[in-house]
Amino acid sequence: MNPQSISLKTGDGIRLQYNQTGPRDGQQLLFITGWRQAASEWRKQVEYFSLAGFRVTTFDMRGHGDSDEPEFGYRISRFAADLNDVLTQLNLKNVTIIGHSMGCSVAWAWWDQYPDVHARKRVAKFVFVDQPAITARDPHWTDEQAAQLSAILTPGAIYDLAADMATQLAPLVRGMFTPSVSEGDFEWILSQNHKMSDAHSATLLIDHALKDWRDVLPRITVPTLVLAGEVSIFPPAGIEWVATQIPGAQHYTFTAAEKGSHFAFWENPERFNFVVKSFLTQ
């Protein structure tokens, strides 16, 4: 089952690279990466699920991976419109959207921006991987309020990170893994991050990190699985809180022994794939 790598054009003319693997009549899965990440980082899921009979689609968001990197559009609302172009142009139906980190925010924005029943009928289920409803801490919150939501950054820290991206990227990405990640794996992941410019990723980070999705979560009406990590950069409490806000949502937290980092899908693909497949086949 060799992946088919081709591209589509968004409504504003940007070329997005995408891949489809697995039998054409298989249950549809669409994976969305996080901030600065490339679709190739889902390769351990692509291989597993396509061999298990699923039809797997991945794509590089604008500015990411092998897609075009224009000088505009680095905001979550535009990324949600791009996602809608992917869903409609590929005519994905009865699809499970699996979003990691910022990919969850893109999916939440899509759900919010496209309430038409015909659009939403395309989605059968959601899997949200390790993204809090809000990343930026309100300066007026107590420590307990911020901890409940896993709001780990102050607005000032977000702008500081964006202003010093070249220096801070490597330690930031390393902190998304457990210490057991191999140097080869880390360097490869970092190389995928470097496919996006620091300037565009800084613009996107500010827009993404300052978003608040708490009012969207209760309006999600399809079966949902929320995944957290015990040793993630996002403390699990806020991710588990997300699950309490989505009607009927299930949740699972990968333990430290299960390498429950922000990249559990990379560090422990066997456990990650098992948990997701169990949800998909319920």
From TrEMBL:
One Pfam family matching this protein: Abhydrolase_1
CC annotations in GO: membrane
SUPFAM superfamilies linked: alpha/beta-Hydrolases
Key words, A-Z: Hydrolase
Record domain AB hydrolase-1: where: 29-269
Domain of life: Eukaryota
Official protein name in the record: Alpha/Beta hydrolase protein
InterPro entries in the record: AB_hydrolase_1, AB_hydrolase_fold, AB_hydrolase_sf, Epox_hydrolase-like
Keyword Hydrolase: yes
GO MF, one example: hydrolase activity
